[in-house]
Amino acid sequence: MADQPTGAEAPRTFLFLDASARAGGNSEQLARLAAEASLPAGSEQRWLRLSEHPLPPFEDLRHVEGGRYPEPVGHERTLLDATLAATDLVFVAPLYWYSLPTSAKLYLDHWSSWLRQPGADFRARMRGGTVWGVTALATEDDKAEPLIGTLRLTAEYMGMRWGGALLGNGTRPGDVLRDERALIAAKSFFAD
Fold first, then answer.
1. In a domain, 90, yes or no
2. Looking at CB atoms within 10 Å, which of 75, 179, 183, 188 has the fewest?
3. How wide is the angle at C-alpha 101 spanned by C-alphas 153 and 62, nearest 5°?
4. What's the pLDDT at 1?
């Protein structure tokens, strides 16, 4: 993560990680509305669709003799570099079976290797950043607790701040735009 700015010294960089299996879905629409309405002045934003940056299955090498994680290349390198360059990580992730979509969970699994990458200083560089969640779901808000808990606990483990979750209701594309409560919350979601 980029060093956290103090006051107006440097702009914040928001990395939006779109984990939806559908381009332009409800979670993405809600996240884009929130970004347009409430990102702090001067903030930079970068959007990456995880489906366009597929990661290989994660292999846990921690306890394998000589088990050293290979240097990240390709999409993994892109995601690692983008993650470290951001001050704020926004998981744009519809609720799938009460949790994160597979691509978001796999991205987090790869953090285990990034924590052990020589010279990456992953934990130290992530510390002080902020994790956010934007999700659309088709049921009651309390069904999103496993997804929210995963992101909140990840932030806590990494010494990051939990920014919160923006929840919207919608099943078919565009449904979230009729969720008045979510639209009102989006207007101030990223405001400090």
1. yes
2. 188
3. 60
4. 63
Q: Please state the rounded mean pLDDT for residues 184-188.
A: 98
| 105-116 residue pLDDT tens | 999 999 999 999
Output b/e per residue, 42-80; b: 16+ Cβ within 10 A.
ebbbeebebeebebeebeeeeeeeeeebeebeebbeebb
Kindly state whether residue 5 falls inside one of the protein's structural domains. no
Residue 1 lies in a domain: no
Q: Are 93 and 135 contacting, i.e. CB atoms less than 8 angstroms apart?
A: yes
Report d(CA 139, CA 170) in Å as an integer. Answer: 9
Can you give the pTM of this predicted structure? 0.93
Give the DSSP H/E element, type plus range, for residue 148.
Answer: helix 145-157
In the block, residue with structure tokens 């990051």:
160
What are the backbone dihedrals phi and psi of residue 139, each rounded to the nearest 5 degrees, phi first? Answer: -130, -165
CATH number for the domain harbouring residue 86: 3.40.50.360
Count of helices and strands (H, E) across the chain: 6, 5
pLDDT band at 83 (very low <50, low <70, confident <90, very high): very high
